[in-house]
Specification:
By secondary structure, the chain is mostly beta strands. 5% of the residues lie in helices and 36% in strands. The protein folds into 3 domains: 120 residues, Lamin Tail domain (Immunoglobulin-like, Sandwich); 137 residues, Immunoglobulin-like; 77 residues, no CATH class. The protein is built from 4 helices and 30 strands.
Length: 425
């Protein structure tokens, strides 16, 4: 019989990957969201357990795969069996599925349902429960469960309505410092004329801290741990997230008129909901749209705690540095803090000729000022907008006497269109 005792080292799959362990002939630990994933079985009994003809079945949506042990296989008492997913040849999805263990006689021994998994993190048994583990432990007794945050902080963060040409999707955001398990929570969508539709999250559906998890809204595809089956058509109906106990955690109402665009919160998990200029499933929301038409993008306004629905804040100057919020936006500066002076290096390039160098950021406008007094300066060159990547700009001057030089941003021009027509140094 092909067997291994308690202290056996890891071998290739053909020889049976058996390691020291302590905890049961059963599915014991799983790592799927990693380049080299694995599945672990364990036998805690004092007797060897025959594996000949035992089958692993993998079900994901409407697809089914299987792998079976050949003759003369057994799992020694108190041993683990760690199986490489690549060597098994089964395509385990990190977005969820079902694993079944079947005996050679055709009896189903065990079932494990799991949802979307965290990168490089494993799930496993602690006692009789499957949990997210604090650390993977292949070939060893499972350690403690990971510390989790409550579901109550999770937010419906971005969504794309379903259309005739593509499925929609729903993104959740976890603003906490620890993972969240969505198991047993559910989504409800009130569909116009058809009442409501609901989706319950599979066991072990996880969101990493300060991270996102995306679920399809594809009513035409098979139901699965990652496809809600909800039809987020252009109905303007409410989308709601409930806890397993029925507590309303979050609710949004997608704008029916924006069915071709994703909609979401700015910033992620925040209170302002807007159309997004590009879909960002699984990434930070962003938008270049300008809801109040004040010249400043919604994403930038939210980032600096301005009001994307109040055009009057374009003229405000919260940091009292003499530049309006609109000027700060155009210059790529922080409107709530005095930006430090732009460092300028001055040196004699040749007799009587002065060289001035400073670093210019791409897309930022500059004016180079000169005068006999700091409070009385004029343009030395026409204002310009730096193009290309960030670079060092060098200019020269032939001062006949002592002069003061200053580089300022944004440029002192009448408009951005005027700047765009001017010559760049």
């Amino acid at each position: 019989m092909k067997s291994c005792a308690l202290a056996c080292l890891s071998l290739t799959l053909g020889a049976g990957i058996l390691r020291a362990a302590a905890d049961g002939f059963r599915l014991n630990e799983l790592l799927v969201n990693a380049p080299k994933g694995w599945l672990e079985l364990a036998n805690p009994t004092p007797l060897s357990a025959p594996l000949s003809g035992v089958e692993i079945r993998l079900l994901q949506g409407a697809q089914s795969q299987s792998w079976r042990w050949g003759p003369d296989w057994e799992l020694g008492p108190g041993s683990f069996l760690v199986l490489s997913l690549a060597e098994l040849g089964l395509e385990f999805s990190p977005t969820g599925g079902r694993i079944e263990l079947w005996s050679s006689a055709g009896t189903r021994l065990e079932v494990l349902d799991y949802g979307p998994q965290l990168p490089m993190e494993s799930i496993g048994r602690v006692g009789e429960r499957w949990v997210l583990l604090a650390a993977p432990s292949p070939g060893n007794e499972n350690g403690a469960a990971a510390d989790l945050d409550e579901l109550t902080a999770v937010r419906l963060n971005e969504w794309l309505p379903t259309s005739a040409v593509r499925p929609g999707w729903i993104e959740l955001f976890n603003p906490g410092q620890r993972p969240v398990n969505l198991a047993g929570a559910w989504l409800r969508h009130h569909e116009s004329g058809t009442g409501r539709a609901e989706f319950v999250f599979a066991p072990l559906s996880l969101i990493e801290p300060l991270g996102w998890q995306v679920f399809q809204a594809h009513p035409g595809a098979a139901a699965s741990a990652w496809n809600t089956g909800l039809d987020l058509g252009p109905t303007g109906a409410a989308l709601q997230l409930f806890s397993p106990g029925g507590l309303l955690v979050d609710s949004v109402t997608p704008a029916a008129a924006l069915s071709s665009l994703s909609q979401g919160r700015l910033p992620d998990g925040g209170s302002f909901i807007a159309a997004l200029s590009q879909g960002t499933p699984g990434r930070m929301n962003q938008s270049d749209f300008d809801t109040d038409a004040d010249g400043m993008g919604d994403g930038w306004e939210v980032r600096y705690r301005l009001e994307p629905t109040n055009p009057a804040d374009a003229a405000a100057d919260p940091d009292q540095d003499g530049l309006s919020n609109l000027e700060e936006f155009r210059a790529g500066r922080n409107p709530r803090a005095h930006d430090p002076p732009i460092p300028v290096l001055a040196e004699l390039a040749s007799l009587g000729r002065l060289s001035l160098r400073f670093r210019a950021e791409a897309g930022t406008s500059y004016s180079i000022l000169v005068g006999e007094k700091p409070e009385a300066v004029t343009e030395l060159f026409v204002p310009f907008i730096a193009d290309g990547p960030a670079r060092t700009v060098e200019i020269t001057d032939d001062p006949a006497q002592a002069r003061f030089y200053q580089v300022v941003t944004p440029a002192r021009a009448q408009s951005q269109s005027e700047l765009g027509r001017r010559q760049r140094p």
